[in-house]
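Input record (one chain):
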Amino acid sequence: MSSEPNSKRTGRFKRAVAQNHLQELTERAVGVLTFVNLPIRKKFLLFFVGVLLWFFALFFVSVSTLVVIRSKSRTIVYDLIPWDKTANKISKDIQEVITNASDMASASDVEGLIGLKERSASKLDDVRINLATLTTGGQINDYSRENNALRETYEVKSLKGDVDGEQYVQSATTTVGAARKVLSELADQRMAVIKGQAGGSRDDRSLQELNRLLRDSIVLSDRFSAHLSAAYAKNSRDIGFDFACTFSAMIAVLLLSIGLLVLFTHWISNSLVQPLNSIIGQIRSLGEGDISTLKKIEITSRDEIGVLSTEFNGLMESISQMALFKKLIEEDNAIEDVYARLAKKFTKDLGLQNLTIYEVANSQNKMKPVYPVALPDDALSCIPDILNDCSLCRAKKTGHEISSFAYPQMCTSFRAETGKEHICIPMIVGGLTGGVVQFLFDRPADQHAGLKEVERKVFQAKQYIQESLSVLDAKRLMGTLRDSALKDSLTGLYNRRFLQEYTESLVAGILRRQKQVGLLMCDLDYFKQVNDLYGHNTGDAILKETSNIIRNSVRTSDLVIRFGGEEFLVVLLDINADEAMTIAEKIRQNVEKTRMKTPDGTIQKTISLGISEFPKDADTFWQSIKFADVALYKAK
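The corresponding structure, as predicted from the sequence alone:
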């Protein structure tokens, strides 16, 4: 039961494969016939050659027909007509001899008889000569019967090869020869009768025999003329048939050539026009900014149009990818995400594996690597001094692309001992260099081919860099504005608003990790006296100094927040039991032993701290802060 469905599926699969194979062969055949995959120049050259061949075909048919018609016409004009004229002339001469023979039979004087005999004998000699000329070919002279003047001269060709003609000449020559003898006998008998030496009965028999021979000659000439008329008619029919066939063939060839010309013109024009119209439509959509409607152009050939379509599809794909990339980075939350996505594009899509992205702080004349994150100084390809003095970076300073391929050791800050080639691309934002992207390459074995590949990849990378500049600038500006809202302008510490915005995510992380958070509420002792004695400028300086002491006393992962006035809140993330007390004591001692400058010298300040732990001491984060605040007042 199960074998039948399997066999049917196998049969359907084989039929589908056969159909696909047939379709592929058909497409290949059409491609060959329409020169689809040939370059355009060769395509039109072959098209021209094809049209020329059709014209040659028409020319060949026409010339061949003309040659055949000319041959048959020459046969009629130079063979049949002269032969027929000669046969008719022979018949006329023999008919004249018959007339003369009758006159000879009734002649009563010797002179008249002799004249008739000579004329008749001359005619028969002319007939024999003409018959001989038909056999060998030559010139025929036609004389007038009235005055024996030359009326016409024409050429005849030899009858050799024409069986009927040869039989005619042979039979007629024999008959005329016999008639010549009988004519002489008739003349001699009539001469004897005239002279009274014989009776007339023998004369009558000779006349009858002569007339019979001469009429047989006329019959032979008439039969030959009929044969020639049949040949003439046949050649005429052949000429008419050949002309009709030629005309039909020319019409057929002309219609076929026009049909193929129209078909090939349609195919070739479609192979050119359709992709070009698609490209025009895509360019129009691109010009209108409607990138979402862009579709790939179908590649129907491998000629220049196919190459153009392929390159255009690649261009549209790049534009689409650029638009998608820009949309993605615009939706990213932080500028660090943009750098990471930009680096991923370089490494995954473009194959630029070895790279570093630097962010430039122009106001501080510093730069730092933002990809890879936390890159140690010894892993940098440039001297570490550029981080604290970004003017040492040639790409940052000039705002131009720096390539060691163009000029070795162009940048003196690049460490040549790495054994790498480098290309540094500045990220110009608002006329200033906001960052530098550095690509590192191994020295290629084939300098020319390797450099071409590098230039291609770097060119694509620069397009993505260019697309990201406006987004980076906007996110950097937004980051600056956000920092200004979430950071204290005096100390640079996070403010209370920051704590309010991030409490939820902070608490969720603590509970998820099941860790403890230490909360240290810090307050400078007798800070109001400092403002009263030394002024607010000195008070601000002491607050800055205190914030630096607290920040340096905790881990980088911990948060130091200016909670208000001279109060600071320290959030110690993921601490162990009683670790908050140790850190609090460390802060207290560091503040106490620090001598702070005043206009009159230095002073020492103390600080009081209150400690609580979340979620150990309270159910909510803000309640734990309240407990730390209560503990602070107890400490005071």
